[in-house]
Each structure stands twice: as C-alpha cells, then as structure tokens.
Amino acid sequence: MDSQPFFLRLPREIRDMIYKFYVSEEDRYLFNLQSSKFAIRSTLSYIDLSLMYTCAQVANKMKGIALSQNVVVFSTFYSKAYRSFAGEHNFTIRHIDYAKTVFIERRAPILSNILEGEYPQLSPLLEYLKQQKLGERWPAKRLPGALSPRWAIPPLVYLDFIDRYVELGELAGSAFDETWKNDAAIPECHARGLIMYCQENPLLRINRRIDLWRNALIATTFLLGEIMNPFFVPQRLHWEKLPASWISKVLGTWIHEAVALPSLGMPKGCFSLVFNGDPAPKEASEIFTDILQRDFAWQSAYENVSQRSLHPTTWLNVRSHICYIYEGFPEEMKRIANNNSIVRCNFHVGLPQDVKEIMNRNKYFSYEEWANSWGESRRDRYLDAPSCLPSWHEMLKEHHVFRLNWRMFTFLVIWACCFSFSILYFVRCIATRSGMLGS
User: Fold this and answer.
1) Are 143 and 122 contacting, i.e. CB atoms less than 8 angstroms apart?
2) β-strand pairing of 382-383 with 242-243
3) φ, ψ of residue 357 in degrees (nearest 5)
4) Angle CA(358)–CA(360)–CA(365) in degrees, nearest 5?
5) Cα(first)–Cα(last) distance of the chain, in Å?
6) pLDDT for 265-304, tens place per residue?
7) What residue ranges are annotated as transmembrane (predicted)?
8) Rounded to whole angstroms, how far apart are CA atoms 230 and 228?
9) Which residues of the chain have pLDDT under 70?
C-alpha cells in the first residue's frame, strides 16, 4: 500500500497546476516595507502559503512559484525619520556635478586631448573652444556625452528585497511594477542601479511607473536646491504655471535615460518606463500631443534643413540650437507612438506635426530666425496644473525633503570652510608664483 498522501500521488503535471493556481492573485502582490513581507494589494492581507508547509517535498516544489506567477508592486517609501537623510543625499549628489565641473575647468588643457580620443564627436566643440580667447562658457547639458555619470541608486526598499531573494533563485520569471513619485537625487537616472540585477536574472520584467505630474514634470523642472536652501525665502518661488518651452527638455531627460539603458548593459525586455498620466490622462495626452510631438517635428525639420545645407551651419550650432532637444529624440518619439519603445504611456500620445510643412516654411531662415520662429508659440505659453491636482507650487513643496538639523548644518559649515580654504590656497599659490617671477 502506498504510504504517500493522496495529493502527492497525483500526476506531477496536475500538482504543478495546483501550485500555480494556489499562489496566483489577480490583484498582484504588494511589498510591505514595514513588515518586509508580501500582502495582497486590494485587501492588504498577508498571503496564505499554508500548502507550502505541509511537507518538505511540497515546499521544495513550490519554491519560487509565487514570485514567478504574480506581479510584485513596489512604491517609493516616505518616512519622517529618513526625511533629513534624503535631503542630505540629494544635496550631496547635486554638488558632485559642481565639483566635477570645477575639476574639469582646472584640468581643461590636459583633458582636451583625452576627450578627443574617447569622444570624437566632441572634436568640433573642443576645437571651437580652443580658439576662444575670451573663455566663453557653454552649459554642460548642451554637450552630448559631457554629462557626468550620475549616482544611479533605485530606492533601497527595492534593492533590499532583491538582495534578499536573488541568492534564493526565486526571481526567475518575476515581474515588478514600481510606482515612483516624490523621488530625490536625480530620479531619472535611478534605473541604472537595476542593471546588475537584471543581468543576473534576465527573466525579470520591471515596469517603472512614473507619476507624470508629481515626479516627471516636477523633479527635473524645478530646482530643489531653491527650497532646500535653509535661507530660502518662499516668495522667491512663484511657480504657479509651468513654461511650455521647458517640457520637452524635461521629459526628454527621462526618455533619454531610459533609452540609454540597453547600451549600459540592461538585458532586452527586462525594463520599461511608463509615464502615468492619472488622475488627468486627458491633460497628459495634450502635453504629448501639443508640445512633445510639436518639438519632435521641429527638431526633425531643423536637422533635415541643416543636413541639406539649405543654410550654413555647424555641428555645434545644430546641437546648441533651441530646436534641438536631444540626439535621437525624434526617432524615439516615433517608437513611442508606435508602441515599440522601452518608454510607454497609459494615455494617447498623439501624432507629430507635418515636418515637411515646417521645413518649407522656414528653410531659408537663418539660425536666429529659426529660434524666433520656434519661440513664437512657446515663450508666452504657460501651463496650469490640472484642476484635479494641487498647483505646481503645492506639488513642488511635496518634494521638500530637506529639514535643517545640526548634522546637516555641520556638514554645510565644513563644506563651506573647505571650499574657502581651497580658494585661499589657490590665491596664495598664484601670489607666491607671481612674486617669484617678479624677483
């Protein structure tokens, strides 16, 4: 007589179907940070895995099935206890770029030859800068490839979970649905921190949902340093309307970062960026239809006219022109509209304007005339926040992650002292050298 329980005497195929049916949840799993456990998203009740604990054989067979059969939902975590830390982290990261800029300015003669070898596309720009005797400055965002590598760290709640389960091999075939809003420290670059985990688990499927209103348009558009400054005067911040001329650059940064992930090692199909237009999908669609599609058409027209030499221009002029959003921006907007991009939207993105019509209307324009024509319908256009949401000013204050405390105050004082001493040392060296030359 077979001593095995009746369940284990069932054919393996039937048992596998039972395992999958037992753990499947239509409403997805939600990761609870406080308890570090999963819950059912709709009811917030804990998941029943009693079947797993009936015996060692069943537990071994069910290992990893729950995560492979369900989508796990994560969200950025907010805590008053971590608020000051988030502000300090954001402050530090944003000043790293400044420190790198100062370093490059000091070492420019040495680095120019290195840059020409590493980034040949910058050769025209470097040659132009060498010929300038007045030391003209160009914003780093105008230089393709000159943006420094960002700190690319996704929320620790997500990495803590992955570190915990990667060694158990339970992530194969899993799908993660992240809702990110109110992030600090250059959030458009955070997905880079997920590359190593996706390389180790190429069957992972991560959908990063970005709140268009409270994150994508806020985090990059407005300078958090303004409201993080302990000496900030609220009256200085008058962002009640959003300039339409900024939007393509702002959202283009998110798109550009996501599109760059495969070239940095992200396995194909592992990651997608989703712009979430809720609770105002109609207004979100209007932003893409009226602004991004328009700017995509204008960049395409300007590039085509420049390539055909209908008016004299240079490599530098093309990329520094106000019509130019990012390299590859028009092509990526086409892919988004055709639903074959790493970037997706949960609203209609519209169709581009007629590129040929823009070319024919402006083909004989000069560099400055193109800029004036581009700005005619943009410079005086400002967007209100949707009526179902707070004002831009109120949503911006939600990103106020800085709270001055003695630790941050000490950090600021030390940073200011170090900066002052470095300037004094530099001035002293110059004075000493001048005295030696004079003698």
Assistant:
1) yes
2) antiparallel
3) -65, -40
4) 85
5) 109
6) 999 998 999 999 999 999 999 999 999 999 999 999 888 8
7) 406-427
8) 6
9) 1-2, 42, 44, 76-91, 93-94, 104-111, 121, 126-185, 219-240, 309-313, 398-413, 415-416, 419-421, 423-439
Query: Residue 227 is encoded by which pair of tokens?
Result: 């409201």
* pLDDT tens sequence across 368-399: 888 888 888 777 788 889 999 988 877 877 66
**Closest by alpha carbon to 317, among 365, 377, 368, 364?**
368
Tokens of 351: 């169709």
State how far the Cα of 190 lies from the Cα of 214, in Å rounded to an integer.
17
Cβ atoms within 10 Å, residue 379: 12
Both structure tokens of 60: 């071994």
Residue 238 to residue 392: CA distance in whole angstroms: 9
